[in-house]
Amino acid sequence: xxxxxxxxxxxxxxxxxxxxxxxxxxxxxxxxxxxxxxxxxxxxxxxxxxxxxxxxxxxxxxxxxxxxxxxxxxxxxxxxxxxxxxxxxxxxxxxxxxxxxxxxxxxxxxxxxxxxxxxxxxxxxxxxxxxxxxxxxxxxxxxxxxxxxxxxxxxxxxxxxxxxxxxxxxxxxxxxxxxxxxxxxxxxxxxxxxxxxxxxxxxxxxxxxxxxxxxxxxxxxxxxxxxxxxxxxxxxxxxxxxxxxxxxxxxxxxxxxxxxxxxxxxxxxxxxxxxxxxxxxxxxxxxxxxxxxxxxxxxxx
Length: 301
Prior knowledge:
Radius of gyration: 18 Å
Shape: globular
Structural class: mainly alpha
Order of helices and strands: HHHHHHHHHHHHHH
Oligomer: single chain
Number of strands: 0
Distance between the termini: 23 Å
């Protein structure tokens, strides 16, 4: 990769990593489900009128929109609202690579090789160490919801592979349309109209800035730049940069939120990142899979 493109990939990883700090700040302004709905509303409008019509079947857009937008982000934002630290959340979500590999065995008939299986075992060991650390210092419910969010992310990755979108930005903008109404309905039912109205009435520039960051910087710029890189370089050259996301996430959480990083958490990070690297970058041992589509490695946050 050219130096400028390496810098771009690292910048995207930084934007996605810092996003967890921004989410933490946003949860001080909005209930989690309403916050997620506003994120997708801002990502979809006005972009949906600029990217052209969808380039894949609607069943894939709706499927990914529900799995990624409603389930994954709804669970992630709720988990963080219940106390899952921003830095730890950025780390735990990387277990999605293991869930993706497991779901691909069932849905796509892939057979993981020995290295990939070893990587999944190492990553799961990292989750175990992180659970021990979180159990000693924080709420396990939020931790569990982050793991559930990673599982839903794995489902969306498999659906995206099946869809094979030719245009990553077009696909993600249309996917962003799907979760808006379901998340708003869930917010009204679970968080209550009074809490939602109070958040909207108290909307200030800080709240607007948070929404614009997670919608435009993370979704529009991040997904667009990542897809642009994947169209020019092999996935094996671009994907490793996603392993920088928890590095930026944990370091920015420590810097801006004062989150401590215990020795157990460092151990969990080493195991998880190492296991995810083996899982993501090793070659499978089953029937030849279709080439990785542009969208598979996009949703890193």
